[in-house]
Amino acid sequence: MQTMIQSVELYKSFILGTISVEVLKDINLSITKGEFITIMGPSGSGKSTLLYLMGGLDKPTTGKIIINGQDISTLSDQKQSVMRRREVGFVFQFYNLVPNLTVEENIMLPILLDGKKTKNYREKLDEILDIVELSDRKTHTPRELSGGQQQRVAIARALINEPDIILADEPTGNLDSKTTEEVMKLLQRINEEKGKTIVQVSHSLETAKYSNRIINVKDGKVWE
Ligand code: ADP
Ligand code: MG
């Protein structure tokens, strides 16, 4: 089985004024291609920090993150951001859509940022809009959509570059329970049918039940 994400002796500290706060201590994790993982733990325990390290949005203090066989800590900043855009799609709690762009423009953003031609991605866009069931909302702006629809746009944006990995930080944290179920079923479908490796941070067992494995973070350590 192919290892998709691996952390090796991973430590992360933040400097706050004159003190150093050790948030993650010696984290060794291995996530296989096609897994759907939920990271749980108390508020402030380091769940988001771990997720961002896994996606190369932040750098470890010491230790390694290996994505698809590549130790990303050895890459230059530029190569790291290219890797991030190609291999990883991010989804956040508050969607992070650009308010004055339409649904399709928001979804195409990673393509533009990657310096690629959006016209080569029209078919892909239509396929993804179909998956997230927003084909009839292409030209709307985020404020014309419900919370669940906005999160589906964010998921579509995470998929457009065809990354192997989707990282989602409390993707349903701002949604009611009915919409939560819709979004979780969508993520489950993307995991099962598209074979994407998904790591989500979540507070609720309700959403954790859609995943295959739960990783708990507490006092800087993880256990399963
Ligand atoms: P969680 O997602 O589990 O709620 P976080 O990973 O956001 O927790 O944060 C873990 C700890 O690290 C918290 O104490 C937080 O204040 C601290 N922290 C996170 N990011 C930073 C940062 N950029 N600078 C300083 N401290 C940070
Ligand atoms: Mg968090």
Automatic annotation (TrEMBL):
Residue ranges of domain ABC transporter in the record: 5-224
Cellular component GO terms held in the UniProt record: membrane protein complex
Gene3D superfamilies on file: P-loop containing nucleotide triphosphate hydrolases
Domain of life of the organism encoding this protein: Bacteria
Keyword Nucleotide-binding annotated: yes
UniProt KW Methyltransferase keyword: no
Alphabetized Pfam families for the sequence: ABC_tran
PANTHER family in alphabetical order: CELL DIVISION ATP-BINDING PROTEIN FTSE, LIPOPROTEIN-RELEASING SYSTEM ATP-BINDING PROTEIN LOLD
Protein name in UniProt: ABC transporter related
Species: Alkaliphilus metalliredigens (strain QYMF)
